[in-house]
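Exercise 3.2. Students should predict the tertiary structure of the chain below and write it as structure tokens, then compare their answer with the key that follows.

Predict this chain's 3D structure.
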Amino acid sequence: MQTFVLGLKYFFIDLIGGIIRWPIWWYTRGLVMAGNWGIKTIKMYARMLALSVWIKNIFVPMFGFYDWQSRLISIFMRIVNIIGRSIGIIILSIGVLIAVVIYVLILPVAALAFFYQFIGGL
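Answer key:
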């Protein structure tokens, strides 16, 4: 009987403690994890798009053609490529920022919806 009471005590302490600790974890360690995910995602796509390589080689002629027309076309094409890849990274960064903002807002919105439904049902 004593073991049963002790088991119930630990169960409810863990249950209540977990419910209380969850929002604290959500906005501390969970938010850090979401932020790290966002930074890693942006860095990974920036590395995949190789924007720094395009910028570094902007004046290097493409395909080994060294006449002035080929150099002009190469510079123009690289500028267009740099602009397009920069726009892609900016769009991805905005998407990641929106995802992190949604992460921050989802807990209070869910709590408000729960309490609204609970109070509306009374």
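Discussion points: Residues 24 and 30 are 9 Å apart (CA to CA). The chain has four helices and no strands.
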